[in-house]
């Protein structure tokens, strides 16, 4: 049971429900193949049925951790830090990113965009979900749009989302892992007919790394 004092610190972003943190190779999107330190924050109510980290959903399962401790561990490994979840924007990201910036870090976020954008970001990967759409503000600043393709209808959803992002946003279609054998041919054909899109794969799973 979290104390009232700790809950206040979590609400302020001074502590965060840390699920895990690890140094690995970015597997997806624009920065795939590059080394980065990942900070996975617990808590998400978007609830994608195909989510591969459902254990991140319940923030109460993950201990509130001081952001100073999180940052100290991160900078031992890398100046490139990726904040992911769960849904990290459930929480106030301002304190974490301000301190990371003081350490000279490049900070990326992977988000559904379903909550108010907080924090200072060098790269925003927006991965919108049908069940809880992004806020309007994040479309204007997203650096990449990554739509997960679980079925053919997701291509229509992808186009709807692409019409909302800024003109410099890079567009990716990524097969949902369990459906990859069926969805990859569909995505390849679609991208060849619609070359403003690129293919993203979860290459870390092919490499058998986190």
Automatic annotation (TrEMBL):
Record-listed substrate binding positions: 25-27, 40, 84, 210
Signal peptide segment: none
Residues binding S-adenosyl-L-methionine: 50-52, 86, 127-129
Keywords: 4Fe-4S, Iron, Iron-sulfur, Lyase, Magnesium, Metal-binding, Queuosine biosynthesis, S-adenosyl-L-methionine
Cofactor(s) the protein needs: [4Fe-4S] cluster; S-adenosyl-L-methionine; Mg(2+)
Positions with a binding annotation for [4Fe-4S] cluster: 44, 48, 51
Gene3D superfamilies: Aldolase class I (3.20.20.70)
GO molecular function: 4 iron, 4 sulfur cluster binding; carbon-nitrogen lyase activity; magnesium ion binding; S-adenosyl-L-methionine binding
Keyword presence, S-adenosyl-L-methionine: yes
Gene Ontology biological-process entries: tRNA queuosine(34) biosynthetic process
EC class name: lyase
Pathway linked to the protein: Purine metabolism; 7-cyano-7-deazaguanine biosynthesis
Ranges of residues in domain Radical SAM core: 31-210
Statement: the UniProt record of this protein carries the keyword Transmembrane: no
Catalysed reactions, as listed in the record: 6-carboxy-5,6,7,8-tetrahydropterin + H(+) = 7-carboxy-7-carbaguanine + NH4(+)
Cofactor note: Binds 1 [4Fe-4S] cluster. The cluster is coordinated with 3 cysteines and an exchangeable S-adenosyl-L-methionine. Binds 1 S-adenosyl-L-methionine per subunit.
A Pfam family: Radical_SAM
UniProt-listed Enzyme Commission number(s): 4.3.99.3
Function text: Catalyzes the complex heterocyclic radical-mediated conversion of 6-carboxy-5,6,7,8-tetrahydropterin (CPH4) to 7-carboxy-7-deazaguanine (CDG), a step common to the biosynthetic pathways of all 7-deazapurine-containing compounds.
Subunit structure: Homodimer.
Family designation: Belongs to the radical SAM superfamily. 7-carboxy-7-deazaguanine synthase family.
Full protein name: 7-carboxy-7-deazaguanine synthase
